[in-house]
């Protein structure tokens, strides 16, 4: 297991019992450079979510933590829509501790090392990273590719549960459904160049996937529930038609970007994600 710098194995073993004791409710722990403490969960249904107390809100505003961890008693590692919105609103990393337990007996089998995301975390390798919705998925892969080259793409809230968003809220839209809001321009197919973002229709009739075009029939992408890979096609034009692929580019990018992933990760510094 690879541990994050702010949560070594010894500290994790110290904190882990808090999440186990709180089951079947969600526990919250904030970590600062000089220590940590458990926060109160004042949610009206603490088994289904978490809310900070006023006292804890004040503490978090007064001194930004390295990360705030909370548990998911149902065993899922994926952030909820509320999690992704909350993390963006607070602008510090969140982490999820998945608890595996038998509901009928209350037997707890495991409290898993946190899955963390947000500004200030190391960027994982572009190739071979595991899939986790809203943490390591097709959108974050594209964002991390650009971050390595000094280009920032805005982080956006994810939407699997549209009811949490007010009508017309841009977070309700699927990735790249409104390119202008992300500072992207839609290209004509003949204008494509390595480093452009592509959006695909893999099923249905709406764009539901994105990838980085590397040129010569190659696309860097993160398939659902699979490791990130470079997909290569011998028939690029046919593949573009099959996937209804559009090409988009950040308006700040004026020239082709590095398309050799191995070289990119060697040549470019590994900044913290933003």
Topology overview:
Layout: H1 9-22, E1 28-32, E2 35-39, H2 54-62, E3 67-72, H3 81-90, E4 94-102, E5 107-111, E6 115-117, H4 138-148, E7 184-186, E8 197-200, E9 209-215, E10 218-221, E11 229-232, H5 236-242, E12 246-250, H6 261-267
Parallel strand pairs: 3-4
Antiparallel strand pairs: 1-2, 1-3, 4-5, 4-6, 7-12, 8-9, 8-12, 9-10, 10-11
Q: What is Rg?
A: 20 Å
Order of helices and strands: HEEHEHEEEHEEEEEHEH
Structural class: alpha+beta
CATH topology of the largest domain: endopeptidase fold (from Nostoc punctiforme)
Mean pLDDT: 89
Q: How many beta-strand runs?
A: 12
**Biggest sheet record:** 6 strands, mixed
From the spread of the alpha carbons, the general shape counts as elongated
Short description:
The protein has 274 residues and is of the alpha+beta class. Helix content is 21%, strand content 22%.
Question: What does this 3D model show about the protein?
Answer:
- Strand 10 (218-221) and strand 11 form a beta hairpin.
- The protein has helices at residues 9-22, 54-62, 81-90, 138-148, 236-242, 261-267; strands at residues 28-32, 35-39, 67-72, 94-102, 107-111, 115-117, 184-186, 197-200, 209-215, 218-221, 229-232, 246-250.
- The chain is an alpha+beta fold and 274 residues long.
Which descriptors would you attach to this protein?
six-stranded antiparallel beta sheet; 2 domains; endopeptidase fold (from Nostoc punctiforme); six-stranded mixed beta sheet; alpha+beta; 21% helix; elongated; Cytidine Deaminase, domain 2; 274 residues
